[in-house]
Amino acid sequence: MNQLLPFKLGEETYALELTEIQEVVENRSVYPLPSAPDMVAGAIGFHGRIIPVVDLSILLGFPTGPRSERLIVLTDDNGPVALAVDRLLPVLNVDLLQGILTQSNSEADCIRAVLNWQEEMISLLDLAQLQKTVEQLCSKTGG
Known about the structure:
CATH 2.40.50.180; 3 helices
């Protein structure tokens, strides 16, 4: 069994495996970063470090709206970065081998698999591709 942290972006449900997450933090002040691209919401202080906050809704092309007050901080292997999402959902225990419907073959896609979990489609993020996408967008804008 795998533990997933699902979250909403618009009406869509996405998830990360708990092993990819260092911590979920609440009520942090996000400080703006001058000349950063729109998808970079700013930065937070996290255990003595300054880490960027990526707004996943903007990065993945969803409409802007209210965001959760909680941020997902990724493990150092995947960051250091915090992700802003619309709404966090309760942790799920899932057998990934039983639920995978499709795997993405597109290098530009930030989704590594889609699950059907209790009649709901959940997209698992591909953090390596997400990181490449963020780096490419930041280098284009000089951020």
